[in-house]
């Protein structure tokens, strides 16, 4: 077989309890440019370094940028990622602002933070006790 499928390595990172995850404090990483759009949405422009096949197969330049659009609720949560506000506090503020119950807000906020972490826009600081 010419092209052998590689296995993805198992994640060996630290496992957090639910309480530790809600006490974590998300930090937004540096953004190159913020462009306000209609209806309170926002376009974030971020520079990135191409890796592996992007560099030689797709010919992505070294100083490439990508654009990510956030809706109004996403902008509100993204702006709370300051390194001082915990995920629990963010969920409470989100629940009050959008008039949803606490569980719905927790699910929405954690899903948003997880997706922003996968895109490389947010990092999470965890205090180990």
Question: What does this entry look like structurally?
Answer:
With 129 residues, this protein is of the alpha+beta class. It has one domain (20-119): Outer Surface Protein A, domain 3 (Alpha-Beta Complex). It contains five helices and five strands, in the order αβββαβαααβ. It has helices at 18-23, 53-56, 72-79, 87-98, 102-118; strands at residues 25-28, 33-36, 42-48, 64-70, 122-125. Strand 2 and strand 3 form a beta hairpin. Helix 4 packs across helix 5. The chain is globular, with a radius of gyration of 18 Å.
Q: Which labels suit this protein?
A:
Outer Surface Protein A, domain 3; 3-stranded antiparallel β-sheet; two-stranded antiparallel ribbon; 5 strands
Helix/strand layout:
Blueprint: H1 18-23, E1 25-28, E2 33-36, E3 42-48, H2 53-56, E4 64-70, H3 72-79, H4 87-98, H5 102-118, E5 122-125
Antiparallel strand pairs: 1-5, 2-3, 3-4
């Amino acid at each position: 077989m010419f092209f052998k499928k590689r296995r993805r390595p198992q994640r060996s990172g630290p496992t957090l309890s639910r309480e530790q995850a809600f006490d974590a404090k998300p930090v937004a990483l540096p953004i190159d440019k913020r462009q306000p759009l209609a209806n309170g949405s926002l376009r974030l422009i971020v520079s990135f370094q191409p890796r592996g096949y992007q560099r030689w197969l797709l010919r992505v330049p070294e100083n490439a940028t990508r654009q990510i659009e956030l809706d109004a609720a996403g902008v509100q949560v993204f702006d709370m990622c300051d390194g001082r506000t915990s995920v629990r506090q963010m969920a409470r503020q989100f629940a009050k602002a959008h008039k949803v119950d606490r569980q719905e807000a927790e699910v929405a906020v954690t899903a948003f933070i997880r997706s922003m972490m996968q895109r490389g826009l947010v990092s999470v600081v965890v205090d180990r006790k």
